[in-house]
Amino acid sequence: MPELKERQIRLVHELMYQIKVHQVMNRKVISFPSTSTLREVQLCLKEKKFSGVPIIDDGVLTGIISIDDIITAFDLGHIDDPVGKHMARNVMTIPQNYSVITATNIFKKYHFGRIPVVKTAQSLEVVGIVTYGDILSHLLMQVNAIAEQFEAMEAISKKSDQAVGNTYRFEIVQDNFDLAGVASTTIKKHLHDRGIAPETVRRIAIICYEAEMNVIIHSLGGNMEVQILEDSVRIHVTDEGPGIPDTEKAMEPGFTTANEKIRALGFGAGLGLPNMKKCADEFSIRSSMGNGTEIEAIVYTGEKTAESAN
Questions:
Q1: For the segment 214-236, what is each residue's pLDDT rounded down to a tens digit?
Q2: DSSP 56
Q3: Are strands 126-130 and 282-288 parallel, antiparallel or unpaired?
Q4: First CA to last CA across the chain, in angstroms?
Q5: Could you list the residue range(s) of the whole structural domain that residue 17 is in?
Q6: How many CB atoms lie within 10 A of CB 180?
Q7: Which one of 22, 181, 187, 261 is at 20 to 30 Å from 236 when CA atoms are compared?
């Protein structure tokens, strides 16, 4: 499934830009006032195994002390001085709403151990601390989640490849958006392998995808069966309730019964059924309240293709 693999790689790249600093930072900030001694900071760094701590006075970041400052203090004999006399005052910070790619670039350029996270770009109010390790840990968790989704999609696809003859069956689960597109991607691959015209493959893929999304969004789950015949492809979809009260109304572009949560996710625009009918050479829909919906779409791949009805 090369297309799915490429999609997963793109998702990983996008994660670096989509993940915000506030999602990975440590909110429990250990800090010291400028009146604390360097020895007090040294004992904290030793216990916590930190490379540095921010210095905060009256809720505002005023400086930072690093392990190098502590070593210098021992060398020069001022380990018992207040940190305010020796702290770095020009502190590099990062706003909490910035992408982690920005933080990563700072770590790579300056080799910092940690960066104080501030509330806004114009603020010195510290809301967290972020390390390179924090970013890597969060990213690895996200990548692992994507990999698990991919493995599930690949498993379903392989299962469909074991179908008898030219019939492929897919189970579609209610609200499972992670696996949306498995059927359309799988069928598209098989049609390409058979040398079907790209435009015809595109129409069939659209029908399969829209059918998947309709079942995921509007039903309690269902099944799709795709038969690749000598001169046509037959797509048969059934779902479990609640049914469509007015199928004619449902075929109107823009009509939707999707709730606000679904629309907020970018789905449920009311174009699924019209798109399926537009892409099919033959299309039928039957539905009854409480019993679910049955859809059949046929696309000709042979000589009838050229004379398909629009």
A1: 888 878 888 899 999 989 999 99
A2: E
A3: unpaired
A4: 31
A5: 2-137
A6: 19
A7: 261
